[in-house]
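Q: What residues go here?
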């Protein structure tokens, strides 16, 4: 089975390299997802049986400050992927990585696959639009999740009042592999088994010296406060 994975330099892409060691992970120069022609040429040349699309502009503040880049990457880039796999005649299975940030997250609740998205910021909006693009292609699966790499927290502080059912990137990579084996279609949430704060998450990742931050202290674009997901279609994973 030939697998192509976009976004190979990100934390999830790095984890997927361990799960799919024989997959093709094109560099940006080999397959810039914002360039429709290059995407089509690369996809048709490799002719994958499975394409896992993880490449995205994920910085919330960056997406607010450079909306054009966010749109071209997260929306038009995803549409370019959909258009390219649609031209294959091998029934390529498309997996799209989305986010809990497609939801408002204003109340303490667990969003399931059946809930209606309502993003609070431009990043969430672009990922929601990416989902719409992927739904045009029937042999596809949208995976919503929320993860961080299993490494030292990259910021000096972490929110004590921002929550989610987080996982580490290696766990999400394993979950993607399991979804792929069953060729699930539609929307699936890959989630942790408990709701924790970002501060607790940073501690679990090994950052013992991380400081505490509250949303009251935060200055920036609107954030999804509670990113907790549940699932009616899949299993939960124990965050370790």
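A:
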């Amino acid at each position: 089975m030939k697998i192509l994975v976009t976004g190979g330099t990100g934390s999830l892409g790095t984890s997927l390299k361990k799960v799919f060691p024989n997959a093709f992970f094109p560099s940006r120069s080999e397959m810039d997802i914002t360039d429709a022609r290059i995407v089509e040429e690369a996809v048709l040349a490799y002719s994958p049986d499975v394409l896992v699309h993880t490449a995205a502009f994920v910085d919330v503040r960056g997406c607010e400050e450079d909306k054009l880049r966010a749109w071209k990457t997260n929306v038009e880039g995803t549409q370019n992927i959909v258009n390219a796999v649609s031209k294959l005649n091998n029934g390529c299975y498309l997996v799209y990585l989305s986010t809990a940030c497609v939801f408002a997250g204003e109340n303490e609740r667990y969003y399931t696959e059946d809930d209606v998205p309502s993003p609070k910021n431009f990043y969430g909006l672009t990922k929601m639009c990416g989902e719409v693009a992927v739904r045009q292609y029937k042999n596809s699966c949208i995976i919503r999740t929320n993860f961080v790499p299993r490494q030292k927290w990259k910021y000096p502080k972490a929110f004590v009042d921002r929550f989610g059912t987080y996982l580490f990137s290696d766990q999400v990579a394993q979950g993607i592999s399991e979804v792929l084996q069953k060729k699930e279609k539609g929307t699936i949430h890959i989630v942790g088994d408990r709701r924790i704060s970002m501060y607790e998450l940073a501690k679990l990742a090994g950052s013992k010296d991380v400081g505490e931050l509250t949303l009251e202290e935060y200055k920036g674009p609107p954030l999804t406060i509670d990113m907790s997901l549940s699932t009616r279609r899949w299993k939960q994973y124990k965050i370790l």
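A: Context that may help when evaluating the design: The radius of gyration is 17 Å. The helical segments are 11-19, 36-46, 60-65, 67-86, 122-134, 169-182, 198-204.
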